[in-house]
Amino acid sequence: MEWLVSLLGGGLVMFGLRDLFHTLWHPTRHGGLSRLVMTALWRLTRRFRAGRRVVGLVGPLSMVTVVAMWAGTVIIGWAVVYWPHMPESFAFSPGSEAAQEPALLDSLYLSLVTVATLGLGDIAPGEAWLRLISPLEALVGFALLTATVSWVLEIYPALTRRRVLAIRLALLRDSDPTTAQLDSTAGALLLDSLATEVVRVRIDFTQYAEAYYFHDGEDHSSLAAMVGYAAALAERGQAARRPEVRLAGDLLTGALADLAAILDQRFLHTGGPPAEVFAAYATDHGRDRVQP
Hints:
It contains 11 helices and 2 strands, in the order H-H-H-H-E-H-E-H-H-H-H-H-H. It is mainly alpha-helical.
């Protein structure tokens, strides 16, 4: 029975590590627990029509919540591993009153101290197998800290690329290029560069799906609000006289269709054409409509 409880704790640890792996390092990055938490918090704020300040906190708070759940799963899992063997399989420092505490409390304390790599030493494993797995928990704790920092450093550059594209589209809309300006070599280069940026954002939504749950602020920095203008530019490019401009317009149209497919497949589930998907994207991010 003791080993069955320890195996249950080991399974809990593996569940947390699996979710961490699929969220951060798996090619499809489909973390079960993390995706569920972020989706639930996002839908909760949308359902109750929370203000922009509250919605803007969903992304950061979701990441904090997910990291806390990873840490809690690892700590509790390892505590369950220790619990059936506490206190007879552990050595206590002289004068310590830890042995007088409940076994579960001592197990949680030892797990927390170990995963935090504090190494206080007032409770030490006595049996050989416990002396092997206890340092392993410290390695997991160090990996969890490193993974959290890496996650933050990956998400924010993806957000920057998305917002840069939105601001660029807003500036283009305000400058309102004429048909002659767009139907030129410079126009072809412009549409081609926009297609490249759209592809980058599409990859970001694939690799860093958590970035979807970050609110972009004002309309000029929100891709949800500005993506419609990119579609309008693509249509103008496809109707141009110069073949290179038409080609660039086709590239931008294809990139936008690919982006819409990813958004619909992973987040929106409308099953409609790109225009309908982008409208749903704008609504989901608190925009009344996509900017034409």
